[in-house]
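Issue 218. Parser rejects a valid record. Input:
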Amino acid sequence: MSTYPYDGTQPEQTARSSSVQPARRRAGTTALLALALAGSAAGGGVIGSVATADRLGEARDATRSAAASSLTTQPLQSGDTDTASVAGAVYARAGGAVVDVIATTQASGRFSPQGGGSGFVVDARGLILTNNHVVDGAESVKVRFADGTEREAEVLGRDSGNDLALLRADLPDDTPVASLGDSDEAQVGETAVAIGSPFGLGQTVTQGIVSAVDRDWAAGGGRTMRDLIQTDTAINPGNSGGPLLNARGEVIGINTFNESPVRGSVGVGFAVPVNIAKQLLPRLEAGEEIKPAWMGIAGTDLDAETAREEGLEVERGILITNVVEGGPADRAGLRGGEDSNGQRPSGGDVITAVDGAAVAEISELVERLASKQPGDKVTVTINRDGNERKVTVTLGEWPEQQIERMP
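Output the parser choked on:
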């Protein structure tokens, strides 16, 4: 798994005449599950999630209403419409709203670069959306606009579950605002365009397609993010937080991570759906730090074959293979399995329902808990030694050290 903050020296670029001036200088189900979900109305949840209409349901209308009432925009520059490609037309329309995000941390009494990423202007009042992992732990943050202007930025709010952060900075005159599309309408096979700063190369444009929607994926074996947009559009270190756009120049996602055996794109990238971000913008602007809820277990889908091997009386549910010591599930008394000659731990509890709603697969358990927040109590129905029990679990906050790995 690769996230995309870029930590190298930013190369020089020569400004060229165009409608958007580039910056002159660029600084299936897994066998294990760590149940940590974004505790937010978004129901999403590295780095959250490309929502489909049935996932967001009635929230879509509320999202559009809230977005319209809370955001003030100025139209994007249309730019040169005499472009030779879809990517060129999208860049002419949206490139001016894309920024470099430069995060700095203090070490040994000196400030040094922590990394770099991308972002885009979502409101004429100076609101800029990026990834949480781009600014997490930074002592200071700057943004560099398409014309090369640099401004200090303030981190207003963060959502570590959906890997989103909202910044505020003074905008240069005539800075356009990105048009936020409807990620529910994203279709497999449609054109997808990314604009950002891979390896510090600002205002870089790449084009591909939407490879999949509604994708649940555990980045690097870590916490499962839900409903992601998958794309083969080239996104690399430094693209984090930049927009994924459709052919109309509307943002449909926020690029967040990729799966790759090398430090670069092999055509399997993921973006948080913009509808999730639109729902969260009011909370982020209000300064909230939204954290995913955490149950603290690892498990595997139970099927008839596994049930026979384990000698279980139930054939559907989630077999708990591990319980994190001191975590919410452990405190509630849930039991994991015991390791057997390096094979799958056996003998653990089987989760069959949450709050009375049956769960037969890990993905269903994730969905049941998606709207929960740290501190919420859930009633977990388990089967232990052939007997059904109900256990109340108080969900906790996902530990920072667990963000990139399984418990």
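Fixed in the parser; the record now loads. The first strand starts at residue 2 and ends at 3.
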